[in-house]
């Protein structure tokens, strides 16, 4: 069987690629990860799935271990019956996605794996705030934590998980970065904050910080 990781992008249905749409249309099964009965990837792709009867939801909790990934990979492998299926993922399949771990287990089972890229949230966010991420000669890091990262010599920093915002902002300010806090980029309730106090008050999981040298 073949499993294709399909990136659905950050939220706006118009940011879907034609290749992603075609893969969904042709898939034997459409696997969608959810956590506690919710799936942002499904919410984004819903307009493309309204007439589909081959959707299978997988309740995959965040941060689960390899044993569970293996269990779900085996289910996907058996269900697909040698056909080509897709696995939807928020943003891009190659960036901090559940698909990465499922794909490893599918390969171990003898299946084929490929990906169809989606627009990453931080690329969409850069367009939203009107700030280029990199100019010629610039250096940038994309991370889920800036702990133990030497910010000296970097021109841009993207933090995709903002669980300890006060610490993040302190480190960025110490190194002279200006920053933008973006929540739910391209979704109906998207917001951009630059005031430190406002940022610290917000606790939306779907948020990121983009920082640039002042």
Rg result: 18 Å
The CA-CA distance between the termini, in Å, is 50 Å
What overall form do the CA principal axes indicate? elongated
CATH class of the largest domain: Alpha Beta
Count the domains.
2
Q: Give me the count of strands.
A: 10
Helix share, percent: 25-40%
Mean pLDDT, nearest integer? Answer: 95
Predict the CATH topology of the largest domain: Cobalt-precorrin-4 Transmethylase, domain 1
Can you count the helices?
A: 7
> Which strand order does the major sheet show?
3-2-4-1-5
Beta-strand fraction estimate: 15-25%
The SSE string, one letter per element, is EHEHEHEHEHEEHEEHE
Based on the structure given, which CATH architecture of the largest domain is correct?
Answer: 3-Layer(aba) Sandwich
Largest sheet: 5 strands, parallel
Oligomer: single chain
Stretches where pLDDT is under 50 for at least 5 consecutive residues are: none
The secondary-structure class comes to: alpha/beta
- At the fourth level of CATH, the homologous superfamily of the largest domain is Tetrapyrrole methylase, N-terminal domain
Organism: Caloramator proteoclasticus DSM 10124
GO molecular function, one term: precorrin-2 C20-methyltransferase activity
Pfam families: TP_methylase (PF00590)
Protein name: Precorrin-2/cobalt-factor-2 C20-methyltransferase
